[in-house]
Structure formats: C-alpha cells, structure tokens
C-alpha cells in the first residue's frame, strides 16, 4: 500500500456517460497529480493541484475536469466518454509544489468505455 | 508527446545478470526519475537524480545522468526474477515559481528476468 488511495479500481461504462474518479493523497502530501496511461499514448500528464489550486495542466481534454478539495482529496471528472478514453488513470501525490523527491502513485483506476 | 525515449524496449536476461536500460530526453531538466511498474499496477518510485548530479546509487540500482548528451542509464545489478517489470524514466523540467510540477515519461523498457 503506497498510501495513495484511488477508487474505484475498475469502472466499466458506456460511451457518452460521465464518471468521477477519486484520489486520496498520502498523509501530509499537498500535491496531487493525475496521469493517463494507454497503450497508444503511454503515460500522459493531465493536471497538477497543490493545496487546492491548479498548478499545471497537460494535454487534458476539455471533456475532463478535476479539482482538489479542502481535505486535499481530488476528483477527476470525465464526461461524454468515448471509446478512446479507455485507459488506466493514475493519481500521484507529493509533499511539495515543486517535486524533488519523487512521486507516490496510487494503484490506478482502470476505465473501460464500451 | 513523450519526452523520453528508452532503449531497449524489451530486455530478457537470466537471474544474477546485470540489466542496463537507457533513456534519452529532449529538453533541459530539473531532475530525472526512474519508476517501476508491475503489469497493470501502480508505478513505484525507484530513484531520483538531480540535474547537477552525475551518478547515484540505491541498493542494487545505479543511475547515471549526462546532461550534455541528455541521457540517463539505469543499471540493476545481480537481477532477480522479482525485478521483472516495466521500467520508466521520467523527466521533471521544473517550472517558474508560480507553476507546478509535471513528469514526462518515456515509453518504458520491459525487463524480464528468467529464473
């Protein structure tokens, strides 16, 4: 157990639907990052939150949004789902805003869009 | 897009042998990190090397960084079957004071250690 908790572990949903993925960072970590891992794109950075504020944004689709709450947990919302959104979604956390010690990753949410 | 390119894409060795994986990147970096991923599971941080460091050791791991060539290597000595996994390099380009942090991952090397 890395200390980063992601729920659910697996999610199967239909095209056009909306889902919410949840992440609880390791205790004491203020930064939360979301990554998408797919066979064709590899590991792609989506977004970084630090202490409730968005700090960096990657190639995140407009259909995707995220937020970090006052208790530091984060949610990634994916809407109007397409088959190509099927992937592993990872959350990672770190103590600081600028990371010099490595990230702690959760075990991921496997999203299958059918 | 992927910043890092890893070489080889796949590596198969016998237990007890050393495994070397290489990573090249394109832009200047703040640090470079190596992660391991067992099939379909979360990534585990192995080691981080800062841009002003040339070599770092952690147990059976040795990482080198050559910023002039924009390349890094990960050496696993005396490999074990349990080392079988995918290994990714990831670069952190750092940011301005108000920006955040992001890692750009390579495509990974699939290491298989045969008993």
Explain what the structure shows.
The complex is a heterodimer of chains A (114) and B (115). Chain A is mainly beta and 114 residues long. Chain A is 0% helix and 53% strand. Chain A has no helices and eleven strands. In chain A, strands 2, 4, 5, 6, 9, 10 and 11 form a seven-stranded mixed sheet that branches. Chain A has a four-stranded antiparallel sheet with strand order 1-3-8-7, with no helix packed on it. Chain A is globular and about 35 Å long. Chain A starts with a strand and ends with a strand. Chain B has strands spanning 5-7, 10-14, 19-24, 31-37, 43-50, 55-58, 61-66, 71-76, 85-92, 103-105, 109-114. In chain B, the strands form two sheets. In chain B, strands 2, 4, 5, 9, 10 and 11 form a six-stranded mixed sheet that branches. Chain B has no helices and eleven strands. Chain B is globular, with a radius of gyration of 14 Å. The model of chain B has no long low-confidence stretch (mean pLDDT 91). In chain B, 36% of the residues are buried. In chain B, 0% of the residues lie in helices and 54% in strands. Chain B starts with a strand and ends with a strand. Chain B has 115 residues and is mainly beta. In chain B, a hairpin with a 5-residue loop joins strand 4 (31-37) and strand 5 (43-50). The interface between A and B is medium-sized, with 33 and 29 residues.
């Amino acid at each position: 157990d890395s200390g980063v908790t992601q729920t659910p572990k697996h999610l199967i949903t239909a095209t056009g639907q909306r889902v919410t993925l949840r992440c609880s960072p390791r205790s004491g970590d203020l930064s939360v990052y979301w990554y998408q891992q797919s066979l064709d794109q590899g590991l792609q950075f989506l977004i970084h939150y630090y202490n409730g504020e968005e700090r960096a944004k990657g190639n995140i689709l407009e259909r995707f949004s995220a937020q970090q709450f006052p208790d530091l947990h984060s949610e990634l919302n994916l809407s109007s789902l397409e088959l190509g959104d099927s992937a592993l979604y990872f959350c990672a956390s770190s103590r600081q805003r600028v990371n010099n010690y490595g990230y702690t990753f959760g075990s991921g949410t496997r999203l299958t869009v059918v | 897009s992927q910043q890092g390119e890893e070489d080889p894409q796949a590596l198969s060795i016998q237990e007890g042998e050393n495994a070397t994986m290489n990573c090249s990147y394109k832009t200047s970096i703040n640090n470079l990190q190596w992660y391991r991923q067992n099939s379909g599971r979360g990534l585990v941080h192995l080691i981080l090397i800062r841009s002003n460091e040339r070599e770092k050791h952690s147990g059976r791991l040795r990482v080198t960084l050559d910023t002039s060539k924009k390349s890094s290597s990960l050496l696993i000595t005396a490999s074990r079957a349990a080392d079988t996994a995918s290994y990714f390099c990831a670069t952190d380009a750092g940011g301005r004071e108000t920006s955040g942090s992001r890692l750009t991952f390579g495509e990974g090397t699939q290491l298989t250690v045969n008993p």
